[in-house]
Fold this protein.
Amino acid sequence: MTLSGTARKLAGFGLALVVAFAAAYGVGQAVGPVAAEPEPAAAEHEGMGEQAGGEHGDEHGAVAAPKGLQVSADGVTLDVLSGGQRAGVRGDFAFRILDDHGAPVTRFAPTHDELMHLIVARRDLSGFRHVHPTMAADGTWRVPLTFAAAGDYRVFADFLPAGREEATTLGADVAVTGVYRPTPLPAPARTATVDGYRVTLSGTLTPGTTSRVTLTVDRGGEPVTDLQPYLAAYGHLIALRQGDLAYLHVHPDGEPGDGTTRPGPSITFYAEVPSGGTYRLYLDFKHGDVVRTAEFTAVAGPHEER
């Protein structure tokens, strides 16, 4: 597939306006209600036919595998250099992207204003971070990072090597020493609060259909209508599936400056989720020059009586 202009830009961050989470990978999946009715199929939404990483399903509806489950893919490997991470200790987290000959990759194209996006989450889906490392001349990426609590973490490197049309997302496990106290996954909920902001989730995640999901931001009961662009969008929605931590990142319908997209209070996403399971959703949004993250638990799949 060849992308250009805005389409290439949206593909670059391992995402697109429609993101497909493929077939039933993994462990720890659960089923239960999410909400509302399913939306029409992806083909009915203009410009909504792309999957995660800019890949398309075939004419029979086949979809690409979830991103972030592999340490090597597309001829490149995520090489984590930092070891002996300790809980609560700030330090540089370092890694490289190696080519299929083991040499560091040093040429990247920007996606959503950055050359590299690093997503971090503990395996119990707590401790979420979205940061942007910087690269040295030798291809080593570094970013100051504090792992707040002990446990096993998953790091996701999301990037576009120069000369390629599609982004790659690679994942690796990182152990953080200390006393491990697992955090129970919060129950599914329609609202989340962060720093005095309330974010309300509406819509559904229904496997095998294109789902319209809208997140609405208010503060003190007043709608926030002046969201600021952050990485070329009014919001970024990341989902990690419980168990295998399969990864998707969806950007909203429309973009700042397109003449039609309003800066809040609502941000609408379209996502195709062919497999059921429990997901943790993380919405990054910017207001008052501060980026905040609202977190939700959602369950994709038909309701099952327990």
